[in-house]
Amino acid sequence: MTTSQVHEERGRHEDEALAGESVISVRGLWKVFGPRAAAVPNSPKLRELGRRDLLDRTGCTAAVRDVGFDVAGGEVFVVMGLSGSGKSTLVRCLTRLIEPTAGEMLFEGDDMLAANHKQLRELRRNKFSMVFQHFGLLPHRRVIDNVGYGLEVKGVGKTERTRRAQEVIELVGLGGNEKSYPDQLSGGMQQRVGLARALAADPDVLFFDEPFSALDPLIRRDMQQEVIRLHREVGKTMVFITHDLSEALKLGDRILIMRDGEMVQLGTGDELVGAPADDYIRDFVRDVPHGDVLTLKWIMRDPRPDDPLDGPELGPDVVVREATRQVLQADKPVKVVSDGELLGIVGDDEILAIVARQESGA
Amino acid sequence: MSTAQLRDTITTRRPSKGALVAGILAVWLVAWLVLRGTHTLPLGAAQLTGLHEWLNDVNDSIGANRNSNPLFLYFFNIIRLIVDEFTTFIQTVLSEPAFDSPIPMLGWLGVVAVAGYVCYLVANIRVALLAMAGLVFLGLQGLWTESMDTLALTISAVLIALLFAIPLGVWAGLSDRFNRLITPVLDFMQTMPTFVYLAPLTLFFLIGPASATIATLIYAAPPVIRLTAHGIRSVPRDMVEASESLGSTRRQTLTKVLLPAAKRTIVLGINQTMMAALAMVTIAALIDAPGLGKTVIKALQTQDVGTAFNGGLAIVVLAIILDRVTTAASAKARPSHTAPSRGAAMLRLPMLIGGGVLAAIGVWLSRTYVWAAEFPADVEIGSTIVRATDTATEWVKDNFAALTTDLKDVVSATLIDPLQALLVQSPWWLVAAVIIAISVVIGSIRAAVVSAVCLALLVGTGLWQDAMTTLAQVLLATVIVMVLGIVLGVWMGRSPRVDRVVRPVLDAGQTMPPFVYLVPFLALFEATRFTAIIAAVVYASPVAIKIVTDGIRGVSATTVEAATASGSSTWQTITKVQLPMSRRALTLATNQGLIYVLSMVVVGGLVGAGALGYQVVAGFSQGQLYGKGLAAGIAIVLLGVMLDRMTQAAAKRADRPS
Amino acid sequence: MRRTRIASTRLALGAGIALLATLTLSACGGAKVGEDSGSSGGGECGEFNIAINPWVGYEANAAVIAEVAEQELGCNVNKKDLKEEVAWQGFGTGEVDAIVENWGHEDLKQKYIKEQKTAVEAGSTGVKGEIGWFVPKWMTEKYPGITNWKNLNKYANLFKTSESGGKGQLLDGDPSFVTNDEALVKNLNLNYKVVYAGSENALNEAFTKADEQRTPVLGYFYTPQWLQTQVDLVRVKLPQYKPGCDADPEKIACDYPTYDLDKIVSKQFADENGPAFKLVKNFQWTNEDQNQVATMIAKDKMSPEQAAKKWVQDNKDKVNSWIGKD
């Protein structure tokens, strides 16, 4: 069984497993900007045109082209791409801050595109909320009133609002700052306010639009930890947009990579690194420390007749970095075993190939 | 060859903008030599065109039918009644005897106390003290009642303007279509000379507070509409999206996000509107608007410069008070920066209560005792100001008249005459072609289309030759304004000390009614086009200087440091770094300078500019010239729109890196 | 920084209290509002709305009429500062009762008296108005014959300015008055260019300078005008006016007529025939009378009210004749 077969196998398997409990389900989603935009997704000819040709022919730009995926409950789903890849447009389509041109979107089984203004408002008030790249805080309101804004527009009374806001402020670690104004806070703290605001109404899904790209690297790391912690504590479904691959790998259960509005690959972190769909992705993941991402199943080989099969056993999902010491110390190859079945073996050569790659900084 | 290379070759082969303009001008000069004096569309002083006569008839029929027309009976009369009542009410608070009492509701001490308290509430204690001192100064000038009349008129015009201007501004901020619709209307309101609609206004709203208020607010409302729209538009998208993503209704987003976030810009608009309202005070006096305007106009009937200056100074003082208060209030609209320390917070409540009590005592005193009600006449400095001004004016006249006459003659012969000859004696179609070509080169095709339409309409007004004479003066004045703007702007931008000294002078230049300095100018430069140009320069250069100063300041300190570090001399830093980097400010300054110069065309007509300005003034004074005056007003608006769109298109192009 | 601000705030509050306290104390003996309210008008005259056109001679007429109306007839006089055209409009809207010095304005008479029938004439003010071309007096001594139009071409060089394009300058243009000067220059074959000064101020300043600094000026001007009491101007003789010589504006080649300055009142005001109307109708004085009051206003800087009061005191006879008192 080749690695790519593994990939396909697993992908299909997962799709089926998640279908029943998916929170967001998207099919054939298009967003086209320009005159007579609606014509583009409907015309078989225009659908196939590249960016430049489409612009020349119709004056339109397709920011999102025929995108489809499912997000499972409790999952952290990352959409990654460079600027102009359509990821921000995509997340705005999901919340209908931008109206999609064509396609289907289900939210918890309900047709999102059929929702009228009032229903949409209800969804936004109760079911999902969003964290923005430049925070989008209201400079004329104190932290506590920013956090309570969603509750306020919903009509929640002041006491209840303040209580709940205080609660989430504590949750994101901003206790003591509730009386400050946004521009008295550092960037990282401001984004914590944005986070608290999104959490205040206790939504089912959180959307993040490149929330940390405006922050310093150190602060960014803190905030990523914060999101991981929150995800652990409150267990929300999260859709996370980023242009930073390491952030995507760190946070994402699954990652969707986009280019020019199109999906290039959808999979887990190790799938992307282990089985890049094309050169574009390969180029992308080249600088990623493979040993940190790949698991043993990506580097194992079928046992050869002369291989001793009495070495130590490890699971297929153990990350290479964690297995390195054990593999190198053992004088026999390590067996990769799942449910008592031998999947393959990993020897010094396989480990060293990954480690050497990392050392040379390639 | 790749497309990029191809594009490069095309740009390198295409002559530069400057060369193209020079080429166009050269062709014009040659054509002028050949075609001089043909197709110049002249019109004699007493001659009228069909359009002018038709406008006269319209005006007459409005006057003849106003008592029977239902539009008047129901619509205009009701507006007039409401505005009259409102303005009269504010007058009874500040300046006119209230009901049975011989004094207004607030005597001078009451006004000072209340003003101080209100300023403290909306701004801070320093501004409050400044406002109180300023008000007392007005009393000392011997102009208390007049000043309060002016203040009452300004306040009621501004309040009524805000009532519809802010909703309109919000609408224009939210809807691109409405914004496109209202922009030309606002242009019209701001550039149409007041003289043109002053007389008809009294037909619609009669002589009295209503006409004065409405005349003032027509001119004063546009800035706050524009700035409200601008404020709404500049609210970061993120903020609006955040609000929407939390499920706000449109109304909630408007009231809880857009308006609060745009508050500072809106207050700035209110500030501009107040300044514009004050600028109208003198002109509204011609239709019996009470206040300082009358003081100025009456004094000038007898060339009494001293008294006129005293009145003008009072207007400047009022302007400074209103400006500083609204500026401080707009700074306070950014809450976090004034987050008070604990000490100040503890003091705030006693200050609020104490201030309130003081204000109440002041009001009570002013309603009870004569000394606190009417400003004591025996303490005054007004007559000293009058005498000092007279002495100074005489001295300048005696010592400089010969020099200034020479200056005027030289400038007229070397600059004004040639430019005017070129514009006026060229065939109209040649001038039009040149202007359209230049619009394309420095601006855009769109700007050229606007120019073409404006030029066609200009021909239609029947006042082509006058329009060209005026255009020559406007262009020259703008050039002088820009030279001053760059020299002083760079100086002020580089030295805060110079800024501190010069800025109050600029404020005065902007708010002192031009009528006041026109008389001494007439003595120095006689009734000439040169005098008109100088008056326009005095009025228009402050705004250009301020914009350039801002631009120079806006150049990042790092860039300047880098230039210094690489060994640039001061001159090199200015010419190679600071000026090119404030290119945007320079174009904006040119644009605003032009508009301000244009708004002085009518004033120029009063001191020898002739042409469109004089036609407007004459139309205001002589019934049979009314239509011609109105046409001249329209011609000024057309010139304004054309020059504005041209410079704006040029500015947009300057913004795009080539 | 903050500390000093608090300190200054506290100081300001303290100073305010202290100041007001002193004022209150010292005020206890002061006169109270309303104690000294003078007698208000009343009487059977009622409201009298008089337009004030913007020149001093007019103001002199109006001030004297207002003084008499208030003091002798007990009218409640409202003075409204208005330009002429606006004032005439005011007859129709009932906001102006009287204009008390009207210079010709045949067009306005046609419109408001004949067509709209909102105004009526109320007789002469007794003042004679002259419009014409003037030069400063010193020029008549230095340049003999300059006051005859036939010699003007000879002196055209004197009057050359930056505005006149090589010809002599004829300074025109108080925009309120009708001018025939372009036609005159053309039809009399004068080597002059009409330059529009644009305001009375501009003309005043030009003649003042011409007088003080002996610069030559030839300009359109009129009398009675307050400046004529301070600066000596001499009228240039143009071909004599004959009735009808100004019928065709294009072909005018004669001087301006002498105007009998008259009074115009609103039709309604005349029909009611109240005491104020009778006063306006009977009001008549001379150029000298008007000049006296105008000089007090323009030169001695008295307020129009003060000037009128003084003149009324000195001229009881005339005043009595207007109001039918012996």
Morphology call of chain C? globular
Number of beta-strand segments of chain A: 13
Order of helices and strands of chain C: HEHEHEHEHEHEHEEEHHHHH
- Over the alpha carbons, how many angstroms does the gyration radius of chain C reach? 26 Å
- Relative strand content of chain A: 15-25%
How much strand of chain C? 15-25%
What is the fourth-level CATH superfamily of the largest domain in chain C?
Periplasmic binding protein-like II
Number of DSSP-assigned strands of chain C:
9
Low-confidence parts of chain A, pLDDT < 50 over ≥5 residues?
A: 1-20
Q: How helical, in percent, are the residues of chain A? A: 40-55%
List the helices and strands and how they pair.
The complex is a heterotrimer of chains A (362), B (658) and C (326).
Chain A: H1 3-19, E1 22-33, H2 39-42, H3 44-48, H4 51-58, E2 61-72, E3 76-80, H5 87-94, E4 102-107, E5 110-111, H6 117-126, E6 128-131, H7 143-147, H8 149-154, H9 158-171, H10 187-200, E7 205-209, H11 217-234, E8 237-242, H12 245-251, E9 254-259, E10 262-267, H13 269-274, H14 279-285, H15 290-293, H16 296-299, E11 313-314, H17 320-329, E12 334-338, E13 341-346, H18 348-359
Parallel strand pairs in A: 3-8, 3-9, 6-7, 7-8, 11-12
Antiparallel strand pairs in A: 1-2, 1-4, 4-5, 9-10, 12-13
Helix pairs in contact in A: 9-10, 17-18
Chain B: H1 3-13, H2 17-35, H3 50-65, H4 70-94, H5 108-122, H6 125-140, H7 144-174, H8 176-191, H9 194-205, H10 209-233, H11 237-245, H12 250-284, H13 292-301, H14 305-332, H15 342-368, H16 370-373, H17 382-425, H18 428-442, H19 445-461, H20 464-494, H21 496-511, H22 514-525, H23 529-554, H24 557-565, H25 570-581, H26 583-598, H27 601-605, H28 611-621, H29 626-655
Helix pairs in contact in B: 2-18, 3-29, 4-7, 4-10, 5-6, 5-15, 6-14, 7-8, 7-10, 7-12, 7-13, 8-10, 8-29, 9-10, 9-28, 10-12, 11-12, 12-13, 12-14, 13-14, 14-17, 14-22, 17-20, 17-22, 18-19, 19-29, 20-21, 20-23, 20-26, 21-23, 22-23, 23-26, 24-25, 26-29, 28-29
Chain C: H1 2-27, E1 47-52, H2 56-71, E2 76-81, H3 84-93, E3 98-102, H4 106-115, E4 119-136, H5 137-142, E5 168-172, H6 181-187, E6 192-196, H7 200-212, E7 219-223, E8 233-236, E9 258-266, H8 267-272, H9 275-282, H10 287-298, H11 304-314, H12 316-323
Parallel strand pairs in C: 1-2, 5-6
Antiparallel strand pairs in C: 3-9, 4-7, 4-8, 4-9
Helix pairs in contact in C: 2-10, 2-11, 10-11
